[in-house]
Amino acid sequence: MTQHAEHYILATGGKDLRRLQLLHRVYGPGTEALFRRVGLRDGLRVVEVGCGSGNTACWVAEQVGPRGSVVGIDVSADQVEQARRQAADRNLKNVEFHVADAYSPRLPEGSFDLAYCRLVLMHLTRPADALAAMRGLVRPGGLVVCEEMDLGVWLCDPPAEAMTRFFALNTALGERRGENFSLGASLHQLFRAAGFARPEVGANFALALRGEEKRLLGMTFAEFAPELVREGLASQEEADRVGADLLRLADDDTTLFGFPLVAQVWATR
Predict the structure, then answer these.
(1) How far is CA 39 from CA 18, 81, 148, 266, in A?
(2) How many CB atoms neighbour CB 128 within 10 A?
(3) E-assigned strands of 120-250?
(4) How many Å apart are CA 147 and CA 162, to the nearest integer?
(5) For residue range 154-167, what is the model confidence (pLDDT) as tens digits?
């Protein structure tokens, strides 16, 4: 998810397609379990804010069936085009995608049963405003469901310096940009501040010993490493070393990765 007034540190569109596919393979099972937990069912009207290339929106469209509908929005026209292609490939007629941002979705207020985002608010400098906009999209009694990372909670066994540096540098870059990459821990408080009286919580914490999914972190680092160098947070030499070490760890099936914790929060309007 990118924003007109924000500086998104990762790639978008076709350049980011593979990374988003891997991210969905890592976190998708937990997201699908969350949707089942909150009562996703046939006939619901759902909006996804920051839909990216459409992985989650297309799955949701399959769950709500032809009596339901899904709208996905993203500020990146490249992402929206990728999402539309995926929907067409899956022959989905009940999902549509539009270019819009989280602050101004440009959709009718109160017109959805459920509004959802994953790893969007953490990239925004005004996440409370975006959450308020999501709240406005759902009808009274509708649900707002969010998943956001906490980069302070992860696992690597045996420990590796490259992993420690990856998360330290990522967090520092977010802080430099005015973004909170540990938002997951306080997401429930953001919901209360937005007027939700009784938010519910869950967790999406994925582990992997082997498989291409483990390369997700190295791919992510490769996308934001140039920003680290431009901001003076790391030298090119360090960025190259950390990137190479992350890929080496990913190919080592004796090293356990615990991907960053994703906090799940949902509440009724």
Answers:
(1) 30, 29, 20, 11
(2) 13
(3) 138-150, 155-157, 200-204, 207-208
(4) 26
(5) 999 999 999 999 99
Work out the burial of residue 229: count CB atoms within 10 Å of its CB; fewer than 13 is exposed, 13-18 middle, 19 or more buried: middle
Q: What is the CATH number of the domain that holds 137?
A: 3.40.50.150
3-class SS at 12? Answer: coil
Percent of the chain having pLDDT more than 70?
Answer: 94
> Residue 85 corresponds to which amino acid?
R
How far is Cα 61 from Cα 51, in angstroms, rounded to an integer?
13
Q: How many residues does this entry show for the chain? A: 269
1, part of any domain: no
User: Is-contact 26 213, C-beta < 8 A?
Assistant: yes
- Tens of pLDDT along 121-134? 999 999 999 999 99
At residue 37, what is the residue type?
Answer: R
Q: Which helix (H) or strand (E) holds 24?
A: helix 17-38
pLDDT at 86: 96
pLDDT digits (tens, 9 = 90+) for 184-227: 999 999 999 999 999 999 999 999 999 999 999 999 999 999 99
Instruction: Extract the tokens encoding 62.
Output: 């399959």
Q: Which residue has the tokens 């994953």?
A: 118
* Measured distance CA(33)–CA(51) in Å, rounded: 18
The boundaries of the domain holding residue 142 are: 13-268
d(CA 178, CA 173): 9
Read off the pLDDT of residues 229-251 as tens digits, 9 standing for 90 and up.
999 999 999 999 999 999 999 99
Summary mean pLDDT of the chain: 94
Residue type (1 letter), 141: G
SS3 for 149?
strand
What are 14's two structure tokens? 């076709």
* 260: its two tokens: 């960053």
**Number of domains the chain contains:** 1
